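REQUEST FORM: STRUCTURE PREDICTION
Request ID: SP-0412
Submitted by: Lab K.M.
Chain count: 1
Length (residues): 209
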Amino acid sequence: MPRSQRHYEQMFFKSQNYWQSWITFASTVGLSFTLINSPLAVAERVNPVLLSSQPQRAVLTGRNGQYVVRIVVNSPADTAWKVLTDYNNFYRFLPNVTSSKLLKVQGNQKVFEQVYRIKALIVDETSRIRVSASETYPKQIAFKLVEGEVKSLQGSWTIEPISSKQVIIQHQVNVDPGSTRTRALFYSIYENTLKMTLEAIKKESERRN
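STATUS: Completed
RESULT:
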């Protein structure tokens, strides 16, 4: 294999590893924002029967930065709500979050801060973000990123009861990494990490039962 080709392939895989670490950060930032009535959400609803057949896995639909992700959680709606609004303890169960703190409460409006540690190759960086949240108990939490590492990120978390002891947690997100990043690679990795995030929420909700 020519040296130039080997060099190109090495650089590609290093870049891919870097994006894997970065996008894990971005997806955990994505406890976010209001797209409940978007055409994507209406057109691509997932049948609860399909979700129930894959009890441990998240199901994702959408593409190019507009996603709907759902997972069945074996816990009451109130327990799932407490996990999704546990701003002071996100660092205990969300990937890459090293600290989290609720800064402001004004009725159903919350502002919280999180610190993330990103490790990739020789990079070892810490990022601090602030997020505003609007809560509609016990069904929806809408978020808006105030400061972060992407151009835009918004969506929502919703809780859909199936029974008194089982719910569907749904995450809708619209993310734009900006024009300076490799968008196709960003979206490919982002889709995988969205599933990981939902599965972490499921695990924590069921642990608290």
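NOTES: The helical segments are 3-29, 39-43, 48-52, 77-84, 183-207.
Reviewed by: T.R.
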